[in-house]
Every structure is written in C-alpha cells, then in structure tokens.
Write a structure and sequence with these properties.
The chain is mainly beta. It is built from 3 helices and 21 strands. It has one domain: 5 Propeller (Tachylectin-2, Chain A). The chain is 11% helix and 40% strand. The strands form 5 sheets. A 5-stranded mixed β-sheet has the order 2-3-4-5-9, with no helix packed on it. A 4-stranded antiparallel β-sheet has the order 1-21-20-19. Strand 16 and strand 17 form a beta hairpin. The radius of gyration is 19 Å and the shape is globular. The chain starts with a helix and ends in an 8-residue tail after the last strand. 44% of the residues are buried.
Length: 316
C-alpha cells in the first residue's frame, strides 16, 4: 500500500510539472504557444479559413452557445459568428473547405461520452466575408444543410473529423475504441434518399501510433496520463497530401501518397511532429500553405500551439 501511495504521489507531482516542461520544449523548438481569447476557453475545434489565410476558426465544447470565433495566429479575436437554428450539444471539431466555388465551415456535433446519442449531426454553414467580421459585434449565419450521423456499428464517441471536399466525403476517427475506428460518410447526401446513409467503418487506426504517457503518469485518470493517446482532432492538408491528428499529448502527421486513399494513409506509421505540451488539446488545423500545423487547447487561459512541418526527406 505504501509503495502504491508513493508511486501515486510521484505521478501527481509529474502531472503538475510535465505540461510546463513540454511547453518550454515546444517553444525552444520554434513552436510558440499563445493565449486565445477568454471567450474560447473550451476551444475544441479548429480550422483555417478558406477566405483569409491569416484567419483561424474555433468554437467551445459541449453546452456552449452556438458560436464560432475567428482569431489570428497571435490569438487575437477577429470576430464572432453566431449559428442560428442549432444548439451546441457537444461540438467537437471543425473543418473548412471549398465546394462549388464557395467557402464553407463544417461543425461537428458528434461528441458522445456515454456512447448513447441518437442525435449526432454535422452542420454546414457558409464562411462569411472576413470584411464583415468585427471583434466587437456578432455576425449571424444560418445552416445551409445538416447531415445526421449514424454509425453502422453503433454509437461512437468521436472528436476527430476532417473533410475531403474533392471526394465529397467526411472522415471520422473514433476516440475511445482500441484500435480507433475510421469512418466515412457523404458530405452532402442525395436529398432524394429516404434513409440517410450510415457512417461506414472502413479501417482501424492502431492505438500503438499514439504515444502513451510515461509509466508514472499512465496511472492517473487524466488527459496527461491514462487518456493521453486518445485522438481529439483531425484535419486534411489543403492539397490532400497529409492528415494531421492531435491527441492529448502529441501531433502526428500521416503522409498520403499520390493516388492513395485515406484508409491506407491513416493506417501507416505516422511522423511525430512533436509534443504540444498543452493542457487539453482538442483542435488541429493545417495552415493555408500545408506546412504549418496549429493546435488549440481548452483551459484557463485557452492556448494555441504552432508547429512547422519539414518535408519527409529532410535531414537534420
């Protein structure tokens, strides 16, 4: 008993100091961390604007107001977008894409901690003109279309979602299953279909890809401990060449070969971009050039991490 108590006490001590140590390491490796506006204190999803490459969109987690926040890379608020006609049951991720010559944002109301929701959905809204945004006033937008989310093999808790607009597909990565189920569904189902197609399981992403916590921290039921390997956000590069997946501890880059599908890319050993060192990382987005990755975290204050990707054949 004394031995277990001693290990637990040591783990608590490491848990208290590890985020600061990894944050310093990230900053030393040219991956700066900045604060986000206080209104985004539960930043859960992240996407880079398709209308302004200097703009990032984020939103709060479950139970928050149905709002999106536009920020810049320095964490400054650029505007607030209120989404009319929907609730924020458990918004978990965000994606930006272009379709039919227009820029869109996809909001994923798919969080399901208890694994029993029957009302998960994707909401797609037009991305507003950046010139209409103001840090001092809200802009209102209405949902263009919504897609119910139903998994063929039963409810899943999902926080990592990405859009492949060229293929008309949405990809979802399960958080808690081991291995992590990868699902595909239509971005815009045919309105003539009487039954909405289910999200199809297409692959299993090995849990071994996601680095676990050190043995001492792994004892703790925290995001820095036992739950560190869980994926909490996903994004596809603008040119479709890679996927970025963030967990509570790390940022992973899955390279995609020409002509290759996402199931093949996401089941091959990824590159480890780094430990972000954030309190509770849940959002990830490629920069407009596909060479940067941003990660957002819940917390007081919420924070934004920024890392640079070297080409796969780069040498130190």
């Amino acid at each position: 008993m004394r031995y277990r108590l001693a290990r637990f006490t040591a783990a608590l001590s490491l848990a208290a100091t590890a985020p600061l140590a990894t944050k310093a390491l990230a900053t030393a490796n040219d991956a700066p961390v900045v604060e986000l506006p206080a209104v985004a204190r539960e930043s859960s999803g992240l996407a880079t604007s398709r209308r302004d490459p200097t703009l990032l969109w984020t939103h709060n987690d479950s139970g928050g107001e149905p709002r999106l926040f536009a920020v810049d890379a320095q964490g400054r608020l650029r505007g607030t977008l209120r989404v009319a006609g929907v609730q924020n049951r458990d918004w978990e991720d965000l994606a930006a894409f272009e379709l039919d010559g227009r820029a869109w944002l996809l909001i994923t109301d798919v969080g399901d901690n208890a694994g029993n929701r029957g009302d998960c959905a994707l909401h797609i809204v037009p991305e507003p003109d950046p010139a209409e945004l103001s840090p001092h006033a809200e802009t209102t937008v209405r949902v263009a279309w919504s897609v119910p989310v139903r998994y063929l093999d039963g409810p899943r808790d999902v926080e990592a979602v990405a859009v492949d607009a060229s293929a008309g597909e949405v990809w979802l990565l399960a958080k808690r299953t081991r291995p992590h189920g990868l699902y595909r569904m239509a971005l815009r189902p045919d309105p003539r279909d009487r039954v909405t197609p289910a999200a199809l399981p297409v692959a299993q992403v090995p849990n071994a890809f996601f680095p676990p916590a050190p043995p001492e921290l792994a004892l703790l039921p925290t995001v820095a401990g036992r739950w560190r390997p869980q994926p909490t956000g996903m994004d596809f590069a603008p040119d479709g060449s890679a996927a970025a997946v963030v967990s509570y501890g790390d940022v992973l880059i899955f390279q995609r070969q020409p002509g290759e599908g996402w199931p093949e890319a996401l089941t091959r050993q990824p590159r480890h971009l780094g430990e972000h060192g954030l309190y509770q990382a849940e959002g990830v987005a490629f920069g407009a050039d596909g060479r940067e990755v941003f990660v957002s975290s819940e917390g007081r204050p919420p924070t934004l991490w920024r890392g640079r990707i070297n080409p796969p054949d780069d040498r130190p």
